[in-house]
Amino acid sequence: MLGEDWDVLHSPDPADSHWSTDNVGEAAPGVLTPLSWSMWGRTGDRMPREVAYRMGIFSAADRRQFPPIVRPFYGRIALRMEYLATVGDRMPGVDGADLVANMFGRVPDTMNFASTMRRYPIICYRLPRAMISAPRQVRRRATIIDAWWRSSIAALPDLSRSECVSVLRDAVDRFDESLTWHSLALLAVVQPMLVQLTKLVERAGVGDVGTLSGTGGAEMAIVSDIWLASRGAMTVADVVANHGFHGPLEGEISSRVWREDSAPLERMISSYADRPDSEDPVQRERRASAQLPEAQREVVAALPPSRRLSARLLLTLAERILPLRGVGKRSFLQSLDVARGAARQLGEHLVAHGELSSVDDVFQLTVDELTRGFPADARNLLNRRLERGREYATLSLPGNWRGIPDTTVSTVNPDGKVIVRDVGETIRGLGVSAGVTEGQVRVVIDPSFAEVEPGEVLVARTTDPSWASIMFLSSALVVDIGGPLSHAAVVARELGLPCVVNTRTGSSLLRTGDRVRVDGDTGTVEVLERAQDRFAAQESR
């Protein structure tokens, strides 16, 4: 299918480049609305250029002239894999093929690479500056953005139409800046730090990466507050005041987060209330913090004396730096939420003036259409986009492809899954949190978690920070996409749950009720019993 001017959700690549939805799909999952794409697309193309420039990988000319880094394909946002190949080919100690393999699980046979050292002098100058400035800026902006989010959300009901437009513009700019600093910190500091910590643990032969990664992450703050609410130490309103920008599909601007619909949060609090006091995540985090120095000493003691000083420095930095990943993410999600609130309030004004039929129709328009010039034929445009979005939702895309992807019509059943694996067969991915457990599968299709029961093995296409709340009740997690720094991996390590990510097809090959063995060390999920086999055996008794 070729792109059409009015359809902003499909812009096929004429250059026959390689594309993937695997990593960007975690932040902005599924078929986006036009308003979501106009935010993610703008920042998703500008931010990687700016990050590469600040690290010295791109020249000023590269920053301007590199081909589009993200594009929408059938409503999904995709990343040009050649961007990461270029970054890897120019970075000291890395090559393009390794970086592509680490990010996407494999290297397409048709990709070309061209390693070069010509940017090394500039990288050696700029990268240390980025490593120092990025963590400081992320923390500083987190305080500013949090205060702005709270005041902006409180002021939404009284905004005029023009004020809604002004707030929307401001939110888009803050989203762009927050995501840029977050990504710079991630690529220049957090990712390299995790790689070095993992290598250190492997050399020492003792220690756990999750334990040594520090405590007090933003995702665990959600779990702690929900626990306190389940014990009556906080109210639902208190939790919403701190985390109301989280909720089902929070990376999609049209979704309804907890501050708009607290029902999923209230169900979670009720489930937490049924857990014994011994599972208190607040106390668990305190114990982990108290045990961290001893865990660090064990790693250092297992190394030769010549390596101990550098190991101590690395462990100290890892404890401080690795939790930073959730801080920047919180900031850009808060910025997105202010844009969500301003857009909905603007939708109220447009409905009142007869320009829209429904408030949520506002999400079928782009940022430019809402802030620079409202379309003259808005109703016709909205109808066409709504119909096209529904069409895209029926299509399935591969994880990566070249040029224009081949699509298939989704054939999932009402339970959400197609059964194609036999008992004894194994699904393979990346083990990102150690441990082995057996349990009953819950394939999560409804992001409100309405059907999730405590102790189940959660299986999903992707996750976002709000998943931390349900992971606390689970026994293990299996996710189609993700890596060592994905939401699922970070929270699973803090909770001590086995976790396997990057299975690519786990949510399609497993069915709710299956019994599986999840091995977070080897990255495997073994099917022990199929749901229909167990249910049939129970009925025959």
From TrEMBL:
Start and end residues of each PEP-utilising enzyme mobile domain: 453-523
Pfam family, one: PEP-utilizers
Organism, as annotated: Mycobacterium triplex
Protein name: PEP-utilizing protein
Chain intervals with Basic and acidic residues compositional bias: 274-288
InterPro entries: PEP-util_enz_mobile_dom, PEP_Utilizing_Enz, Phosphohistidine_dom_sf
Superkingdom: Bacteria
Annotated spans, Disordered: 270-295
GO molecular function annotations of the record: transferase activity, transferring phosphorus-containing groups
